[in-house]
Design goal:
The protein has about 375 residues and is of the alpha/beta class. It has 3 domains: about 90 residues, no CATH class; about 150 residues, Rossmann fold (3-Layer(aba) Sandwich), CATH 3.40.50.1860; about 110 residues, Rossmann fold (3-Layer(aba) Sandwich), CATH 3.40.50. The longest helix has 17 residues. The chain binds iron/sulfur cluster (SF4) (2 copies). One iron/sulfur cluster binds next to α2. One iron/sulfur cluster binds next to α1 and α4.
């Protein structure tokens, strides 16, 4: 058990957004590793064990603790394993997750909306502006080089429409051969993976794999780092490259036109993108190719991951509020590349743009 290796040095404390937001040791990685060690010694303290199970879901799974730990405690794996064990052994304590699990089992999306509605909202909104968009929706028999996996957030939330508009306009402008998975897309399985429900996640992934294979795609492209973790690491896609949209577009340009910059920008790098997927270069490279000047924000967390928005929305809000105040970004537009981070930033009334929105604007009106 790798948590045995925790020597309680405390290096992880200053990097943990949960400890930052609460100031309480039991929310920190060190505190939780200590509780695990204690519980191994005292096996029948049910009250302590119950509190630990609750605390496991008071975590955004940002991975900063694991990155910091010089004793080599693979903390993310510990949190994943312990979450799976907690839900399996004490499902009654996690009844609040049941509606989400039911929605994923029945209609394969996190919102419990009809599966066929995945390509309804954004298509209604955008098809007049982007001629031929309806033909870009995958149906049996259609094939493509590049298949776009939108994920639940981008498929269903109106706040994501500007990103989708820019994504599709850019693909059209560059004459890319692409299809969108649309109603044939299942949730990628990430929410179930975050609960440690591998079986449920695998059922969702199998259908996606079938569709991607039937479409004969060479690449599956997603704007969502959570979906990309699932596509790249857990879908077993043979001969299909799974790419973040910033990777896909960065490859296409040596240099773009110059962005007509009238505002101050900062860059919030999504945890799952840079820390879990280790995609750090391409988003920055693409921003720089547009000649955009921006301030790097500290590599910290928006508070929107790890199911924390469900388990403790107040703490999730507090994490982003502290981040925004500390970084002094209220008067800037925060660039990001993750639909979940976007939701967190919009929730604080911040101006935010996905990198593809900047690219679309640059291709349309940038200077040569
Ligand atoms: S950095 Fe590692 S060893 Fe140090 S307290 Fe945190 S988990 Fe324990
Ligand atoms: S994953 Fe992030 S929020 Fe969770 S314990 Fe580690 S540093 Fe804290």
């Amino acid at each position: 058990m790798s948590y045995d290796k925790c020597v309680r040095c405390g290096s992880c404390l200053q990097f943990c957004p949960m400890f930052d937001a609460t100031g309480e040791e039991q929310f920190s990685p060190r505190g939780k590793a200590y509780l695990l060690q204690v519980m191994d010694q005292i096996e029948d303290d049910e009250e302590l064990a119950k509190e630990f199970r609750r605390l496991l879901f008071e975590c955004s799974l940002c991975g900063r603790c694991e990155e910091t730990c010089s004793s080599g405690v693979d903390l993310l794996r510990v949190w994943h394993e312990q979450r799976a064990k907690a839900i399996e052994t004490h499902p009654e304590e996690f009844a609040y997750l049941e509606p989400l699990k039911d929605a994923l089992a029945n209609v394969k999306n996190i919102y419990g909306l009809a599966a066929e509605d995945r390509a309804i909202y954004w298509l209604d909104e955008l098809e007049d502006e982007i001629p031929g968009l309806a033909d870009r929706v995958y149906e049996k028999g259609k094939t493509t080089e590049n298949i776009i996996f939108l994920g639940c957030l981008m498929s269903f939330r109106g706040s994501q429409i500007p990103v989708l508009r820019s994504l599709f306009q850019t693909l059209e402008k560059l004459e890319i051969d692409y299809l969108v998975m649309g109603a044939e897309e299942n949730c990628c399985g990430h929410p179930l993976y975050l609960m440690g429900n591998e079986k449920g996640a695998q059922e969702l992934r199998e259908h996606n794999k079938k569709v991607i294979t039937a479409a004969e795609a060479k690449r599956v492209i997603s704007c969502c780092p959570g979906c990309l973790i699932q596509l790249r690491e857990h879908h077993n896609l043979e001969g299909v490259e799974a790419l973040h949209h910033t990777q896909f577009f960065d490859r296409l340009f040596e240099k773009t036109k110059k962005y007509d910059q009238k505002e101050k920008f900062s860059y919030h790098d999504p945890c799952e993108l840079h820390r879990i997927l280790e995609i750090k270069t391409e988003p920055r490279s693409l921003i720089r190719k547009m000649g955009i000047e921006f301030k790097e924000m500290d590599l910290s967390c928006c508070g929107g991951g790890g199911l924390l928005r469900m388990t403790d929305p107040n703490l999730s809000d507090k994490i982003i509020q502290l981040r925004v105040a500390r970084e002094g970004v209220k008067d800037t537009t925060v660039i990001t590349a993750c639909p979940s981070c976007r939701e967190q930033l919009l929730g604080q009334d911040l101006k935010t743009k996905d990198i593809v929105e900047l690219l679309s604007e640059t291709l349309d009106g940038g200077a040569d």
